[in-house]
Amino acid sequence: MTPPAPGQTAGHGFPPLPPGFRLGTSTAAYQIEGAASEDGKGASIWDTFTAEPGRVVDGNTGAVTCDHYHRVDEDVELMRRLGVDGYRFSVSWPRIQPTGSGAANAKGLAFYDRLVDRLLEAGIKPMVTLYHWDLPQALEDDGGWLNRVTTDRFQEYAAILGGALGDRVEHWVPINEPNVVTMLGYGLGTHAPGKRLMFDALPVAHHLLLAHGKAAIALRQAGATSVGCANNHSPMWPASDDDADVGVTKLFDAIWNGMFSEPMLFGRYPVDLQSLLAEVVQHGDMVTIRQPLDFYGVNYYNPMKVQAADEDAPLPWEPRDILGYPTTDFGWPVVPDALRELLILMKARYRAALPPIYITESGCSYGMGPDADGVVDDQPRIDYLDAHLRSVATAIEQGVDVRGYYTWSLMDNFEWAEGFTQRFGLVHVDYATLERTPKRSFEWYAALAAAHRATR
User: Fold this and answer.
1) If you classify domain 22-453 with CATH, what class do you get?
2) Pairwise CA distance, residues 81 & 107, whole Å
3) How many CA atoms lie within 13 A of 200 on its CB side?
């Protein structure tokens, strides 16, 4: 497809976005829903993980978090005020199938059915992620993503959701950030289920990719017309020109970026990884994984700098700080042009195999709360969004077909192992009272959306 011609977004010096460009926002089920054991929902690996002392920085859990489960109308009204065209949210697998298999939980389906209807009534197109990390604990007890059978269970789950919501959902994402699931959940153990397998976690990557392919098939059989992905990508910068640093950066780039994009787009693993995955790949797997994608979702936060580790280190690489740039409260460097760099690199690397791109996540953590007047002055977030959208606009001018930007996140929420210590939202959430307070960034994004609509 040919990208639309760039056109200046009207007024206020906003980033120049092309007509038809989608402005949206994103969330994930475990991070905002709460109601962790209500209406038939089963336990997830994150329920188990957060109950273990020391797993979460502040000791909190997602049992209540933003209580979105009981506040759908209020939160959709916030999005209507925001003026976004799209909302990317995830479905809690154990809310639909409490043990990860069997008949659907009617109350769980009813929740998402109502959410989709409310979004459409507000003029907001749903983008649904089937899996944003909350695997049913019963499946983890049987091996989780190390067990190939989980891919069959996931296909059955996808069929249920496709049949229930497929007539109203615009875009589908089977699995969010399979690289993060593999490395942090099973490789390093900092996320659920907390396993420290290092390179022995590679079968997880293959099974996640296989589940992606099987889900895409099931969704299309149910009538879905747009199926994509949401892969976390980062430009990789070697710490020096030393051959060891350059070589290990290439390896880490293959694991973080190429291990998921190349199977989806080319039907093969990066050359440097093929021998490591040979034993887990069965006949026909790569064909299943390489389902046609209607869009390619990019989750971007920052570039990574890598250097060779000592010979006795558990992994051959180690991260290095990127100096000379401001950082978010998470300590992540703010490098807007690296997003343009990434998009240009992807276009050059994947060429005709690359479908239209959506930025399915991009955002920043800044912890400021309401002042005495109830105003949340988060100017750094405004600066971040403005600069990153300008980088996207530049990439579009340079020939990359980018169709939209979904900022992370609609509201402050439970930030996985960081608990409530990091705030990514356009809306401030008081976790004691659950009061929502739109931040200045919310008003800026709303003004951008209104100005952008005026160009259509």
Assistant:
1) alpha beta
2) 28
3) 6
Active-site residue (options: 33, 140, 361, 415): 361
Q: Which residue has the tokens 């709303």?
A: 446
Q: State both tokens at 137.
A: 């604990």
Residue 201, Cβ density class (10 Å: 0-12 exposed, 13-18 middle, ≥19 buried)? buried
- Give the C-alpha separation, 38 to 41, whole Å: 6
| Residue tagged active-site, from 33, 140, 170, 177 | 177
Q: Is 361 a catalytic residue?
A: yes
What global pTM score does this model have? Answer: 0.96
Q: Residue 152: helix, strand or coil by DSSP?
A: helix
Residue 24, strand partner residues: 86, 406
- Residues 44/95, Cβ–Cβ less than 8 Å: no
User: In the chain, where are the structural domains located?
Assistant: 22-453
Tell me if residue 121 is catalytic: no
Residue 23 CB partners (closer than 8 Å, separation 6+): 17, 83, 84, 85, 86, 404, 405, 445, 448, 449, 452
Phi, psi of 245 (to 5 degrees): -65, -40
- The tens digit of pLDDT for each residue in 30-40 reads 999 999 999 99
| φ, ψ (nearest 5 deg) of residue 74 | -60, -40
Residue located via tokens 């950030």: 177
Q: Which of 332, 187, 193 is nearest to 259 (CA)?
A: 187
> Could you report the per-residue pLDDT of 115-138, keeping only the tens digit for each?
999 999 999 999 999 999 999 999
